[in-house]
Specification:
By secondary structure, the protein is an alpha+beta fold. The protein contains 8 helices and 20 strands. Strand 9, helix 6 and strand 10 form a beta-alpha-beta unit. The two termini are 37 Å apart.
Amino acid sequence: MQQQRHPLTAATPGTARELVSLHFGAPASGQKVYIQASLHADELPGMLVAHHLRQHFERLEREGLLRGEIVLVPVANPLGLSQTLLHVPQGRFEFASGENFNRYYPSLADQVEQAVAQHLGPRADHNVALVRAALRDAVAKQPADTELASLRRTLMGLACDADVVLDLHCDTEAVLHLYTGTPLWPQAEPLARYLGAEVSLLATESGDAPFDEACSQIWWQLAERWAGRHPLPMACMAATIELRGFADVSHPNAERDAAAIVAFLSHRGAIAQPPASLPPLLREPMPLAGSIPIHAQQGGVLVFVREVGDEVACGDVVAEVIDPYDGRVQTLRSSIDGLLYARDNRRFATAGMRVAKVAGREALRSGKLLSA
């Protein structure tokens, strides 16, 4: 294992941060796998999973079982990790800009297409190599004039040419679920099976360019542009894995999730060991546009009457909001049939607050599909 340290742009004189990446195996000897944890720095289950993955990868490397390179970033957001307000970690938004750490990654399809257009040919592997080289060059030219910009460029530089990108997150209270691109589902389905994902949410455009989509979306964008002229496969299987909720930080969960990721990589041939048998798929994938939030219309004590993982029908009561002054009770109901897969971990609601999410089978929304 090799450790690499990547200095980030200092925001003020006398301060400095760095990103640390761990590299296992040998580059250019097979697939490249990139895994990062806690890009939202207060979402900690991924850090513990990364700890367990490191132990797996160190053993597999000693035994000569890695086919290619695995890059593991156990702390993907040193900026957010340092942000604490009144003893409460604030790892989702950067204080300086207010921007979500997992949004606004660059869209590079136009730049890459311009760079490779004259060199494309009839061989898919040739075209993939051209696109990856152009991607590396385009990412390297991205601005790094702020701490946040340098963090984004560094993360993209490590991941942009990978065959597999796994971004480890969690929700507030949730069942294990994942997000991935609709064209990637054939590659992502084994991952969902090994993880025991309760639901997989698919989109081709979720809005505001999250990290996983910035890594993978370019492949279906360019494949569509070049259809019938130049073959281009979906050469980056990227997914965001939501490792349950904030409080689900335990060794049993983390070891189970790490073993599932190792099994998935073995299934893909990135690890030279027989893969475990594929478990059943717990639920067919659903469109991200079918994920419907439930909002409070008044402030008050938030009381859930349904648990994450429950199947709910349209009209079912999911929670109540109780005004402690006058005793008014607002019932919050699901507007669709579906799976209650996530809910807020706070128990006092404000008017307009999103308190839960239900995944349905029908795409009902458009535009920006992710929360702030």
